[in-house]
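**Backbone shape codes:**
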Amino acid sequence: DTRQSPGGSFARRGALTQKKASAAGATTRRSAELIRCNQSIDEAAREGDVVRAGETLLKFERSGGQPDSMSYNLVIRACARAGDADAAERWVKHMEAKGVHPTLCSYNTLLDACAKANKAEAC
């Protein structure tokens, strides 16, 4: 018999709803982890701690997290505050290598780093 019992379709819908809820919960957890990561990077960037900002992002990547453009921009900002144009450029390249497209903010912050390092001609 190819007919479905009335309860069968509801059971399948219930299972799909549970899968969607589980996926939404995983997405929410990933989003919360990304927000915490970005907050930690931002804190390091505000303090001008390039090493800690970069290490925080790399640790997040190694744990399976997927940083967004803001994550990278915060690290680039830490480099700019420290006047480290070379590090800022490396982070833009790392960002691209990871498949995250640099934004206007990324490039403006890179230019800021170059200006602070008196390397405007290099950028």
Summary: The chain has five helices and no strands. The mean pLDDT is 84. Helices lie at 6-46, 50-62, 69-81, 85-97, 104-116. The first helix runs from residue 6 to 46.
